[in-house]
Every structure is written in C-alpha cells, then in structure tokens.
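So, can you check these tokens?
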Amino acid sequence: MKKIMFNDSCGLTQAVLEGRKTMTRRLINLCENDLHFMKISDRGEYLFCSKTALDGAFPRYKVGEIFAVAQSYHALNKSGYVAPEWLDHTCESSAGYNNKMFVRAELMPYRIKITNIKIERLQDISNEDCLKEGIKEKSRFPHKKSCPFYFDGGKHEWDNSYKTPRQAFAALIDKVCGRGTWNINPYVFVYEFELMKGGEQ
C-alpha cells in the first residue's frame, strides 16, 4: 500500500481525519502553451501531452485506489493510537517517529479512497470546493463576522481570516505550494476522495 501526505502546518491532515477535507489539488508542472489534453478513460483519467516533446504526465492517483494517510508515529502516539509491540520499543529511534515520509503505510490507521479525478485551472475552484479543501467557516468569534472563513496554521484562527472561501483558499495554496501559486493559476489535478478506517476496503 502507498502513502499520501497532507500539510500538517496548515491543519490539512487533521481536516482529512475529521472528514472535512475530501478534495485535494495537485499542481501539474507543464507549460500551458505546450499542452493538449487527452481523456484516456471514462473514469476521469487524463493524459497531458507536450506538443513539442512527446512526454506526458498521468495523474499520480487513480479512481478506486486506496492510500494510507501518513502520520508520524509521534503524532499517532499523541492521538492515543495503540502501536504494535515492535513499534513500542523502536519508534523513538525510527526515522518515522517525527517524519511521516518514513512511516510504514500498513501501520497507518486511516485510509482514503480516490472517487473522482478532474482537471481545471486553480482559480476555477468554487466556494463549495474550497470548503471541501479544508477551509473552515467560523462558528465562534462573532466580532469577526466580516471575515468568517479561515484555515488552520496560525497561532489563532482569526490570524487567517478572509471574506470568502476563495480568498482563504488562495492564501492556503500559497502557503502550501509557495507564494504566487494562486496568481500563476496553473492547471491542477483535482482528486476527490472519501475517508476510510484502516480495516475498510
């Protein structure tokens, strides 16, 4: 089984585990003027082909695939996760204790299943999809009603407050992918998914 990673500093892994984030956008690193699109299946799989060099970029994930949501062993311990016996003795010396790049996928308690794939420009995202990307709407702090949308990652949730879900998502994507990403407006693969517990198939 393979792992999939979400940004922890912006609270996206937690948003997935809470079932609030059911969509992720991944950048397509090909030049816009050198592309045409070819749909290769009825399940929403696409191939991007360069017109000048015969290279291409397939979606990294496929509809129906299941991935383990990567969490560091340390994060799992704090959440009350009961580690396998071998891990109790070795996890603190393991590379995966603080770095989820090195954890074993089969030990992760949560999975996601890819349910749909589409292609769009980053700025084509709807307000509804922004919420599926993990943007929150305030339920507290009535004095902040003028800027009700935010994402995790600041010292206080009102540090990242915006008037619309799109404004909040624009700031979020710049924080995750680098400043200026929203303004560049690249093509992205949009992956929709559903959360599963580890034993589900």
